[in-house]
Write a structure and sequence with these properties.
heterodimer; A: alpha+beta; Rossmann fold; OB fold (Dihydrolipoamide Acetyltransferase, E2P); 2 domains; 6-stranded mixed beta sheet; 5-stranded antiparallel beta sheet; 20 strands; 23% helix; elongated; B: mainly alpha; MetI-like fold; globular
Chain lengths: 363, 301
């Protein structure tokens, strides 16, 4: 179990991490999700012991390890760049932590070959890392982290520099690889989709603060704040500022938003609706009850594989709608956007979640 | 010829036809000229000849007798002799010069690189108060001519009994070589990602073990180039080496400049000594030839 107790890190007068408290259970998969410069790497370096926090404590199994140097901790780390020892063979690269720990030769050999087999590196053991492809280099780094049997394994965007096919393969394997060891796995990523694919727990980071920590799906479905929802949404979360007056909820231009009884019991005032691109459609739904339809002017259409993201200006906001299939909607075209208002997140004036979608199964 | 020129040329199509013919003829001509006269190899050969001429002349002289050197002009030794080399290799006054030079050069190279390695690592990996100024200040030591330091070194070494010892010259040369080695090594070290250091610490390496087993092999070319530059500077430096020695640690270069005797100048022996002085440098440069350009750029390519 790894505990961060009100950890703060200030470098050159700049706050990199502010007041972070987290508890990561043994054998759990934890994802640090946040944009670049959110503090993911800084947080990992603190967990590893590569950097010391300015204030706060780091505890491993209730033992204070704040000042313990990294080499005395049971930690393994894999970087975004493919970091291996260029002068050593792949075999020696993987064996390195075991050699330092002076394990018996037979055990080293067995473990290295096991890890190499798991990561499909058996035929590469005699080569040097430079003679390998990027994917193989990163797998070598992962194998080195694997043989160490560390209680804390830190993966800092390990797949970011790989091409997408390799990324998909390795992403599926990664949690399985480390699951057997019972170690705490921490995985940093900038991609919300990656967090959802990996599951486990997610901590969303924004400007050096952990905005929310919990089971990944919970964080995704019930973001506590607008900020978390925005961090956990790619393409960006669509928002619509609305005003509640009595039972009527209207957008800035007076369009009535059919929220039904979603906001019953909340006081009058300004609220923000948040909804993800797949909740916004270009096709009229079967029933019109509770559906907000708004005209929009298309700005850009992004076509990815089998879906199209249509960026449109509607109700004074820039929205992104997901349109299944490949449809070239040309910029400047006027479309009607359909939003199932019952499914959006409602944030209060302080940007805290005040009403979540009622039926999670439908979401 | 004359008649042709005075006669006015017929105008019109004939003219253009002739022009066309000329062009047609000229083109293959030009091609043969380009192929027949190898301009590039010629320039290169001339360049090499001019470059190597002094060395060739030295080699020629070293294989001639004094009589031949002084009396006749010969492009190669007519009366080939190895007597000059025999003199150097048999007379302690001569060969001890090489021994002394080699001794203090090797001492200096080892000391310089050994001192520069940790310093360069600190400059490359850590930030501390005034690090950039200190780093630059190191190089300014190279900007002063050695003559400036000759007097203080002479007085200092005389008073502490280091005068005329090998270590005296080796230490004096460190003043110039350590900064150079630090700059070269820092360049090579900064080319190694910091994450490799961290990965080693995470793996459990202690600093000395990481440095010896992981880091030094990584910057081996840099160490080679730094050692080469130290060797070269120390080997060719004459002023400090001569000032700080008299008999016991007298370098070969000093021996060579003190050979004017009552019997005149021994040209052949002097030339042989010159050739033998070139050899070690040529040998050392062979081993670092692939990295020398990066070394001249202080490791920053």
């Amino acid at each position: 179990m790894l505990t961060l107790d009100t950890v703060t890190s200030v470098v050159d007068g700049e706050t990199h991490l502010a007041d972070i408290s987290l508890t990561l259970e043994s054998g759990s998969l934890n994802i640090l999700l946040g944009p670049t410069l959110a503090g993911k790497t800084s947080l990992m370096r603190l967990m590893a012991g590569l950097d010391a926090p300015t204030s706060g404590r780091v505890l491993v199994d209730d033992r204070d390890v704040t000042g313990v140097p990294v080499r005395d901790r049971a930690v393994a780390m894999v970087y975004q760049q493919f970091i291996n020892y260029p002068t050593l063979s792949v075999y020696e690269n993987i064996a390195s932590p075991l050699r330092v720990a002076r394990r018996p030769k037979a055990e080293i050999d067995r473990k290295v070959r096991e890890a190499a087999a798991l990561l499909r590196l058996e035929d590469m053991l005699d080569r040097t890392p430079q003679a390998l492809s990027g994917g193989q280099q990163q797998r070598t780094a992962l194998a080195r982290a694997l043989v160490k049997d560390a209680s804390l394994v830190l993966l800092d965007e390990p797949l970011a520099n790989l091409d997408y096919k390799l990324r998909e393969d390795l992403r599926a394997e990664l949690p399985r690889l480390f699951a057997a060891s019972g170690s705490i796995l921490v995985y940093a990523t900038t991609e919300p989709a990656e967090a959802l694919l990996l599951g486990g727990h997610t901590a969303t980071l924004h400007q050096g603060r952990v905005t929310q920590f919990g089971p990944t799906l919970d964080v995704y479905r019930r973001p506590a704040t607008l900020l978390t929802a925005q961090t956990f949404s790619d393409p960006p979360l669509n928002v619509l500022p609305v005003t509640k007056r009595g039972p009527a909820v209207t957008a800035a231009d007076g369009t009535a938003v059919p929220l039904g009884d979603r906001m019953t019991g909340l006081g009058d005032g300004g609220y923000t609706l948040g909804f993800r691109p797949h909740e916004l459609s270009l096709r009229p739904p079967a029933t019109t009850a509770g559906v907000l339809s708004a005209p929009g002017v298309v700005a850009v259409t992004e076509i990815t594989g089998s879906e199209s993201y249509v960026h449109a200006q509607a109700l004074g906001q820039r929205w992104v709608a997901l349109d299944p299939g490949i449809h070239a909607v040309s910029p400047g075209q006027t479309v009607t956007l359909y939003l199932d208002a019952r499914r959006c997140l409602v944030f209060g004036p302080d940007d805290r979640l005040v009403a979540e979608p009622p039926t999670l199964a439908a979401a | 010829m004359m008649t042709r020129i005075t006669r006015p040329a017929p105008p019109g199509p004939t003219d253009t036809a002739r022009e066309g013919q000329d062009q047609g003829r000229a083109r293959p001509k030009r091609r043969t000229r380009g192929g027949g006269l190898p301009v590039k190899p010629l320039v290169l050969t001339l360049y090499l000849v001019f470059l190597l001429l002094p060395i060739y002349w030295l080699l020629g002289m070293s294989l001639k007798t004094n009589d031949e050197i002084l009396s006749t002009f010969s492009l190669w030794p007519i009366d080939l002799t190895f007597a000059n080399y025999a003199v150097i290799l048999s007379d302690p006054a001569w060969y001890m010069g090489y021994v002394n030079s080699t001794l203090y050069v090797v001492m200096n190279t080892i000391i310089s690189v050994a001192v520069a390695l940790p310093a360069a690592y600190a400059f490359s990996r850590y930030r501390f108060l005034g690090d950039k100024h200190l780093f630059f200040w190191l190089l300014t030591n190279r900007m002063a001519p050695p003559a400036v330091f000759a007097l203080p070194f002479f007085q200092l070494y005389s008073s502490i009994g280091l005068f005329d010892t090998h270590i005296a010259v080796a230490l004096a040369h460190c003043l110039f070589n350590v900064p150079l080695a630090v700059w070269i090594l820092e360049g090579f070290m900064s080319g190694v990602p910091r994450e490799i250091d961290e990965t080693a610490y995470i793996d459990g390496y202690s600093f000395p073990r990481f440095f010896a087993r992981i880091f030094m092999p990584l910057i081996a070319p840099g160490i080679g180039v730094a050692a080469f530059f130290c060797f070269m500077f120390s080997w060719v430096e004459l002023l400090l080496a001569r000032t700080l020695t008299s008999v016991d640690a007298k370098p070969i270069a000093a021996t060579m400049t003190r050979t004017v005797s009552a019997s005149g100048l021994d040209w052949g022996v002097l030339a042989a000594a010159g050739i033998l002085t070139i050899v070690p440098g040529a040998l050392v440069i062979y081993f670092v030839r692939n990295y020398i350009a990066k070394g001249f750029a202080l490791g920053r390519v």
